Amino acid sequence: MKRDGEKLSRRELLVRCGWLTLGVAVVGLRCDLLAAEVTLLDVAYAGSMGSLMEGPIRSTVAQRLNLEMHGRAQGSSALAQLIAGGNIRPDVFIPITPGPMLTVLRAGKGETAEPIAHTEMVIAYNPKSRFAPKFETAANGKENWWEVLREPGLRFGRTDPVTDPQGRNIIFTMMLAAKLYKQPDLVEKVLGPTINEKQIFTEATVQARLQSGELDAASAYKIQPGPFKLPYITLPNEINLSGENVHAHHPDVSLSVGGKTYKPEPLIYYAAVLKDAPHAKGAVSFTEWLKGDEAQAIFRKYNYDPPGDASALHA
Question: Are residues 161 and 258 in the same domain?
C-alpha cells in the first residue's frame, strides 16, 4: 500500500474493491472508494476512541471526504512521545487532555489543536458480577460507590498512568473523592500502589476484560461502556474531571509517576494537523469536518459531549 503519495491509482482501487479478477474488470458492482480517487489519512488517536473512530467516523469520512483512514489507537501520552520523537508520522493527532497535545506542539510537530469533544470519568461494572447488585444500588444513589469498590475480593481494572491519561485520571478522581468524602485512605484502599500490576491493562482491553467477567469494575470515560453494553456509575461533577478549571480548583492535587509530575486536566479531546503531514490536504479536510455538524452529531450519538467553551491549544 502506498504511504508516501496521496492517492491510490484507479487500478489499486479496482483491485481493493474486488473489481479486477484475473485481469478482468467486473462491471456493475458498487464500491464507495471509487466515487473519486481516495486520499490516505493516518490518524493517531486516544485508545478510548476506538469504537467511534473505527466505526462511524471511518465509514463516514470515506463516503463524504473520500479519505481512507488508517487509525492508530494507543494511550495519548505514549502516542505523544512517539510523535515528538519522530518515531511515527501521522497526519492527524487526537489525544485526550491538553498535556499530550502540548507535548507534540512544543516539540514543533504542530501549531494549533482544536477542541472537538468532551467527556467525564465514570465507574463501569459487569452486570453479572457478584458485586453488581451493590453497584446498581450505588448507581441509584442508595449506596456509596466508593465503599463498593473497597469490597474484599473485588477485581478492578485501570490503565497505565505512565503512558495513558486515563490511568492518571482515575487516580485523580480517587484523590478528589478522598477529599470530598473525607476518606484519606481511599486511593490506597481502592487502587493500591500507583503502579499496581494486578489492576493495570492496556486501554484497548480494559472494557473487553470487564465485559468478559475477568474484572468486576473498571475505570472508564463515559463514552466507553456503551459499545460493550456495560452499565456504569456517574460521578459527581466535583470529582469526574468534567470541569475545565479542575486544576485551578484543586491546586494541591498532583501525581508523580514515571519521573514526571502531573496535575488534573479537563477531559477534552483535541485534533491537530501535524507539520509535514504526508497527506496534509486530507488532514485539513478531516479536522475541519470533525468540528462540523455532521461529525458533532455522530459524537453526540456515541455519548461524547460538546467541547463547550474550551480554547484551542497553541505551540
Answer: yes
Long-range contacts of 105-111 (CB under 8 A, 24+ apart): 105/272, 105/313, 105/314, 105/315, 106/315, 107/83, 108/275, 108/315, 109/83, 109/84, 109/274, 109/275, 110/272, 110/273, 110/274, 110/275, 110/315, 111/272, 111/275, 111/314, 111/315
Question: Do 91 and 143 fall within a single domain?
Answer: no
Domain carrying residue 97:
38-119+267-314
Is 302 part of any domain?
yes
pTM: 0.87
Count of beta carbons in the 10 Å neighbourhood of residue 97: 23
What 8-state DSSP symbol labels residue 27? Answer: P
Three cell numbers written together for 227: 459499545
Neighbours of 25 (CB within 10 A): 10
Instruction: Give 6: exposed, middle or buried? Use CB within 10 Å, 0-12, 13-18, 19+.
Output: middle
Cell of 126: 459487569
Does 61 share its domain with 153?
no
- In the three-class reduction of DSSP (H, G, I as helix; E, B as strand; rest coil), residue 188 is classed as helix
Burial (Cβ within 10 Å: 0-12, 13-18, ≥19) of residue 301: exposed
How far is it, in rounded angstroms, from Cα 273 to Cα 290?
A: 12
Joined grid coordinates for residue 223: 463514552
- Predicted confidence pLDDT, tens digits, the chain (315 residues): 444 444 554 445 444 555 444 344 444 444 544 445 678 999 999 999 999 999 999 999 999 999 999 999 999 999 999 999 999 999 999 999 999 999 999 999 999 999 999 999 999 999 999 999 999 999 999 999 999 999 999 999 999 999 999 999 999 999 999 999 999 999 999 999 999 999 999 988 999 999 999 999 999 999 999 999 999 999 999 999 998 888 888 999 999 999 999 999 999 999 999 999 999 999 999 999 999 999 999 999 999 999 999 999 998
Task: Give the separation between CA 258 and CA 306, rounded to whole angstroms.
Answer: 32
